[in-house]
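B., you asked whether I could sanity-check this one before it goes into the benchmark set. Here's the sequence:
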Amino acid sequence: MSEELSHILPGNIVGPYRVVRGFKGRGGMARIFEAEVREKYRQPRLPRRLALKIAKEDHQSALVAEADFLSRF
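And here's what the prediction gave me:
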């Protein structure tokens, strides 16, 4: 794995999620981690474990700009 996002390790908290397993896969814009929803954010009928997709740093500003643009409609 490249140095980018290598700081995300098992046990790290990312928003309402706790990373269970480090790097699982990658695409052109993001990295995939196995995570679980922390107890206080859990909803009974939704899965506890999930794939957590985190955009690479060089793509984050473009995604924020796109979300801002789309929110205007």
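One thing to flag: Strands lie at 13-14, 17-26, 30-37, 49-55. Otherwise nothing jumped out at me.
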